[in-house]
Amino acid sequence: MDSTRRPSRIRRPRPGAAPRPAQYPGPTLNLGPLPARPPAVPPAIAPHAQHGEQTQRLNKYLSERGLCSRRQADDWIAAGRITVNGLVATLGTPIGPDDVVRVDGRAVGAEARHVYLALHKPPGIECTTDRRVEDNIIDFIAHRERIFPIGRLDKFSEGLILLTNNGDIVNSLLRAENGHEKEYVVTVDQPVTDEFLQVMARGMLILGQMTRPARTWRVAKNVFAIVLTQGLNRQIRRMCEECGYVVRRLVRVRIVNVHLDGLARGQWRNLTRPELERLLPGRTDW
Question: pTM of the entire structure?
Answer without folding.
Answer: 0.63
